[in-house]
Design goal:
By secondary structure, the protein is α+β, with helices and mostly antiparallel strands. It has 2 domains: 163 residues, no CATH class; 34 residues, no CATH class. 47% of the residues lie in helices and 13% in strands. It is elongated and about 110 Å long. The two termini are 57 Å apart.
Length: 203
């Protein structure tokens, strides 16, 4: 039971450790964002920030034998404001449907009928800069999640440290009838006193 509990805590702690690094990476990209940058650079920074931000909540299952939880526990987000929860859901939606993948919902496309032999299509572009995404609010929620992950990381670390401590085993020694009886918890060892040889110091 203890090993299972330890493994669960270790897996969650490992995910939180990576989550903090991912969230700090997102902060680097968002802190570098400026209105005077070229639009291509602005888009690249926002895309990188969203990908980094989403990692803790979209963990992979590539190898389930790895000692890490697939994602940050959902309960860690309890207490976020309605605005923060809405932004969180929106950012993950952008990641899932338009950045990491091309979903028809956010990137609709279709065929244009023509009389010729070729094929013409239309596609509605997905542009982060046209979505009026508030970078300051984005940065604020990233920092909020980092604080929450750090607090939980410290809590789990303290729990694991306590589980690692081996309780002291009472030790007792009795000597009678020419033997020494050593008791350590449920274990007992009887040693003849004759086994202890006496010696004199050589001047």
């Amino acid at each position: 039971m203890k090993k299972t509990e330890d493994a669960t805590h270790e897996a969650k702690l490992n995910r939180l450790s990576l989550a903090r690094k991912d969230l700090r990476e997102a902060q680097v990209y968002l802190s570098a964002f400026r209105v005077d940058l070229h639009p291509t650079v602005q888009r690249a920074l926002l895309v990188a920030a969203i990908i980094s931000y989403a990692r803790p909540f979209r963990g992979g299952w590539a190898n389930r034998t790895q000692p890490i939880a697939p994602k940050v526990d959902d309960t860690l987000g309890e207490g976020l404001s309605d605005a923060q929860q809405d932004l969180h859901i929106l950012l993950l939606r952008y990641r899932d449907k338009a950045i990491a993948h091309s979903d028809f919902e956010l990137k609709p496309t279709g065929r244009i009928s023509t009389s010729g032999l070729g094929v013409a299509t239309w596609t509605l572009p997905f542009d982060l800069l046209s979505l009026d995404l508030d970078v300051a609010e984005f940065l604020a929620i990233v920092r909020e999640w980092e604080i929450r992950c750090t607090a939980k990381l410290l809590e789990l670390g303290g729990t694991l440290n306590k589980l690692d401590q081996v309780p002291a085993v009472p030790l007792g020694i009795e000597m009678s009838d020419g033997v020494a009886r050593v008791h350590a918890g449920e274990m007992s060892l009887t040693i003849p006193l004759s086994a202890f040889s006496q010696h004199k110091e050589v001047p």
